[in-house]
């Protein structure tokens, strides 16, 4: 699964805001100029959410309007740090700052710093 900056923004917005519609997410992620732009950005968000749902990262409600939320067992936000122990026994700790951790169904775990894209 390829995750880019827009995916991270979408997941971060949902992690902070709870269940949201695609339009609500689009308004937080993009600078919306008018209704036409909102419609276009809404479609972009919808396509990305569909893909993220397939990987188990996002959950979709069965109600109208459709609400999307992060799967709390697969997406975690917070402050991260890495502990590394070398072969000769030296230990290092690296502070990562604000991160989002994504555990994808059927594969990998991603830990991505969010401070550069934080809104």
How is this structure best described in words?
The protein is of the alpha+beta class. The chain has two domains: 5-70, Arc Repressor Mutant, subunit A; 75-113, no CATH class. It contains three helices and five strands. It has helices at residues 5-17, 22-29, 35-54; strands at 58-60, 68-70, 75-85, 91-103, 109-113. The chain is elongated. The mean pLDDT is 90.
Going by CATH, the homologous superfamily of the largest domain would be Winged helix-like DNA-binding domain superfamily/Winged helix DNA-binding domain
Q: Which structural category do the helix and sheet elements fall into?
A: alpha+beta
CATH fold-level topology of the largest domain: Arc Repressor Mutant, subunit A
- Please work out how many helical segments DSSP would assign: 3
Biggest beta sheet summary: 3 strands, antiparallel
What is the strand content?
A: 25-35%
**Number of DSSP E strands:** 5
Number of domains: 2
How would you describe the oligomerization state of the chains in this entry?
single chain
What is the CATH architecture annotation of the largest domain?
Answer: Orthogonal Bundle
Level-1 CATH class name of the largest domain: Mainly Alpha
